[in-house]
């Protein structure tokens, strides 16, 4: 594996690979890797000839009171993990490399797809996400880019951006990877105290229970939301940001559960905000 810090060097290597007819797979991350990230890299390794992974903690997607400075980082550990997954190029640019002096250009996906769920209480978050992902896609020019479904709204927004801007890349959504007790893996899980960590498993438990209720009793979205809120609220440290049931493709609110829907939630345990979701097909 080769670690690359500059756009110029990475582009030169990718152009050389493309001249040889190689397919490029790309996994963008913010580092402090876990099995969820590694599963994306392994899938890219199976499906493409050259795998590029990036580690870049993107400042433009953090709000003023969020955890940019405190976000966990361990580049040495991450580099070993990416190499073990068969990554060919690890792109680790500085903030100045991605956002040079006098940088003023941003990509903004408008509409309900970015205004609800995580976008509702995190203004500017998806503007930062779409800006950095569009830049990375333009730098790497991959054939396929791999994203985890835990960030379901992010996947939907990026897919919309790629289609609207005619970016020539296939977006590959990949399954959520969970810990032994069902908690969705996240770099932010390291922030949780032992008590909060035990309580956090209620997120996946409540989602799986809601899924069963939908299949067994055909409850409407209002009753399912009420069930989820009551169930999650039973954890004393849980503070609910949102619980929503939306169309699985466009993320529009739904009153009746039919076709493909996404049950998505965000909950704080102390200062740590966790997200999770489950897709249901009827």
What can you tell me about this protein's structure?
The chain contains 10 helices and 9 strands. It is an alpha/beta fold and 282 residues long. It has 2 domains: 2-174, HUPs (Rossmann fold); 187-277, Pantoate-beta-alanine ligase, C-terminal domain (Pantoate--beta-alanine Ligase, Chain: A,domain 2, 2-Layer Sandwich), CATH 3.30.1300.10. Strands 1-4-3-2-5-6 form a 6-stranded parallel β-sheet, with helices on both faces. Strands 7-8-9 form a 3-stranded antiparallel β-sheet, with helices on one face. The model has no long low-confidence stretch (mean pLDDT 96).
The fraction of residues assigned to DSSP E strands is 15-25%
Percent of residues in helical segments?
25-40%
Q: What is the CA–CA distance across the termini?
A: 44 Å
* CATH C-level class of the largest domain: Alpha Beta
Outline type: globular
Relevant CATH superfamily of the largest domain: HUPs
* E-strand count: 9
Q: Could you give a short account of the major beta sheet?
A: 6 strands, parallel
Major sheet: order of its strands? 1-4-3-2-5-6
The appropriate CATH architecture of the largest domain is 3-Layer(aba) Sandwich
For the record, the count of structural domains works out to 2
CATH overall fold name of the largest domain: Rossmann fold
Structural class: alpha/beta
On the 0 to 100 scale, the average pLDDT is 96
Pattern of helices and strands: EHEHEHEHHHEHEHHHEEE
Radius of gyration: 19 Å
Number of helices: 10
Indicate the low-confidence ranges by residue numbers: none
Brief synopsis:
By secondary structure, the chain is α/β, with parallel strands linked by helices.
């Amino acid at each position: 594996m080769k670690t690359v810090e500059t756009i110029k060097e990475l582009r030169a290597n990718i152009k050389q690979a493309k001249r040889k007819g190689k397919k490029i797979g790309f996994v963008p991350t913010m580092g402090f890797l876990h099995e969820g990230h590694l599963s994306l890299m392994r899938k890219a390794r199976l499906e493409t000839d050259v795998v590029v992974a990036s580690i870049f903690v993107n400042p433009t997607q953090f709000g003023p009171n969020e955890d940019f400075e405190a976000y966990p980082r361990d580049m040495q550990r991450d580099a070993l993990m990416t190499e073990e997954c068969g990554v060919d190029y690890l792109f680790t640019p500085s903030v100045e490399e991605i956002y040079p002096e006098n940088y003023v250009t941003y990509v903004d996906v408008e509409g309900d797809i970015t205004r609800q769920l995580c976008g509702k209480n995190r203004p500017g978050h998806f503007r930062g996400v779409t800006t950095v992902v569009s830049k990375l896609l333009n730098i790497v020019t991959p054939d396929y880019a791999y994203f985890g479904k835990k960030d379901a709204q992010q996947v939907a927004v990026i897919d919309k951006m790629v289609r609207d801007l005619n970016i020539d890349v296939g977006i590959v959504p990949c399954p959520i990877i969970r810990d032994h007790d069902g908690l969705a893996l996240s770099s932010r899980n390291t922030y949780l105290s032992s008590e909060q960590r035990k309580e956090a498993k209620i997120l996946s438990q409540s989602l799986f229970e809601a899924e069963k209720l939908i299949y067994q009793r055909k409850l409407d979205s209002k009753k399912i939301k009420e069930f989820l809120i009551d169930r999650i609220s039973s954890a004393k440290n849980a503070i609910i940001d949102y619980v929503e049931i939306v169309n699985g493709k466009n993320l529009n609110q739904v009153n009746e559960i039919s076709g493909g829907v996404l049950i998505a939630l965000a909950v704080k345990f102390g200062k740590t905000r966790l997200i999770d979701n489950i897709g249901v097909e009827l």
